[in-house]
Write the structure tokens for this entry.
Amino acid sequence: MNMVFVCSAPQLLKKARFGRFHKIRAREGPFFFGTQKEQTMKTNAILLIDESEEFRSRLAASLEPRGFSVLQAMNMDGARDHMRTTSVSVAVVDGLLSGRDGLDLVAQLRSDYPDLQIVFVSHRISHLSAHERLAHSLGVALICYKPISAQELSLKICGLMEPAFWRDRPQPGEASKPAAGSWLGGARGPQLEAARREYEQSIPGNFQKIGQSLIDARHAGREWGELEQAHRIAHTLNGTAGSLGFSDVSAVAYAMENVLKEIVRMRRLTSSPPAWPSVGSDGPELEALESLWPGQTKADRERTVVADVLVVDDDPDFLATVAAMGKENLIRVYCAPSGAEALRIAQNHSLDMAIIDVYLLENDDAFDIARSLRSLDGLCELPIAFISADTSLENRIAAAHAGGSLFIKKPLSSADFAAVARRLAPLEIRDRARLLVVDDDPIFCTMVAGMLEGAGMQVQSLQDPKRILEVLTDYRPDLILLDVLMPDVSGFDVCRVMRSTEQWRDIPVIFLTAKTDKEILLQCFKAGGDDYLVKPTLREELLARINVRLERVRMFRERADRDALTGLPTRRPFIDMLRMRIEEGVRFDKPVSLCLIDLDHFKRVNDTYGHLSGDRVLSGFGHLLGSRFRSMDVRGRWGGEEFVVAFYGEDAQTARMIINRVLEEVREMTFTGDHGESFSITFSAGIASFPEAGRCFDEMFRRVDAKLYEAKEKGRNRIEV
């Protein structure tokens, strides 16, 4: 029996690197996927096992709008009650539960439910060898680390789940049925219905052609023409099926198209054809995508590594060992025996993280190297880990001050190295864009939804424009596709209402119109539209216009959360992040220290040296804070000459030692006035720690503000706890 491997398109290459494929067998009759047991087990139910009701509620609120059914439990007994009555696809297990360790619960779940996918949420990474046990022995599908937002965790869970089209798919011998309101359900004439029925009958044959092309590519002297033919069929199937309303078929074809496109693209980069895996009785077993290219060229490796890691160490044996570990784990390692070589590599290569040995040769200081790396363009937020056999508190404090996110103890195992790399250099996860299609024609809405969902977007349709404000409140789209001519309320009227409402005035609107005269197009922009598209709509043009608008929205939102002068988060996002750290502190009995910093006599700087000099001071100090501390520590500009820093897991005294190093560094900085004068600055700071100073943000801030006032009263240029 021949086997075809299909995976969720956004996650396919990532899963392929770790050898995780979903095996899908071809059967007789209309195309169908998976065994009968696999079909039974694949549901949209997710079980959350966490003692924090607040965290469960937030995660459920993020998952349910994505179409998942969410069950909640505080312990194993509650989990069993749900599992007896509901077929659960994914269980999310917190690592710290009353009376037992989360790993024990994972082992119990794996024993009782061997097909269950498990997400383990850990609150610490001190025992990296445990991750190897989770991944291999217990079969955990995903490991996450707290603190983590509910939205980010829900996105990671969505990456594990099969897309929505896996649910309610046809059983063997059963015809594919469109959803209510789709092309068949709302057919507009016998010719259209006949055309759709004819195309529906051709779908199984197109999938079989793709499979046969893959088999022929292997047996026909490894000819690449067969692979290109398979890619063309998948591409055509994706576009045509989506346009005709077969969104489920389009999504499957989209996943296949992406895999084949990657194979064909790699062929154009290298003259050596892929080495096909050995053939068994059931056909080619594609254990992992990277096995197609055992002798990769440099261009190949650029696209198959998990992360690019810079390792700075003066021990050539250690560098050689780490390089071998990287090869095992699909991690590209750049070895630097000195600080100068590290900076040269950083200037010429894209890096995801750096690992620096604390003790280098006498002319190199590890912490200075870290600061120099962070000062390079584009690397101000480079994740950095320090490594040493000496794990003294002094080294750890110095590492935290230099911006180290992790402190690793030598010797380093291959499993630990892989865990560190994937912890500090995770693949980018971006939320699915939410689009709203407003058009009174349900057939057109279905067609557009098929195009957009096939591209990984979340789509909701609205045929009654009078409900626009209600839907905006419930759905909160990132972009709206709006038809111009609709009964009762025109698209122009809808757009004007949105632009006059503060809450919705910034949502991008792309008008859809069948008319091309200049007056209509001018009306689109006068009503407040951002762009327009002429019906009938080409898929490629539609996606291109949408992606441009979405990218601008993301850019504007990011800018709104960042202070332009210092590059630090502004007050609102800082408070949101700090409250998350405080919640984690409550949950896991960890301290959280808040530091409020005020630049001393800043008004005197403006009056004496000029306001431009004052801006240079604020910018320099902001960038200093941004390049220090760990990635889990939160920095922000509070307003004026005041700054804030929050340290998760550190008490007030440790935070004081870290901030005191910053104060010493600031005292040595020199600034230039508007007329060339040189001057220096100092700052005063107050520190308060959770839970001693209070159990909420307001209580902590009142305490830290009082400590800052005390530092000023005692003569400034000091830190009070």
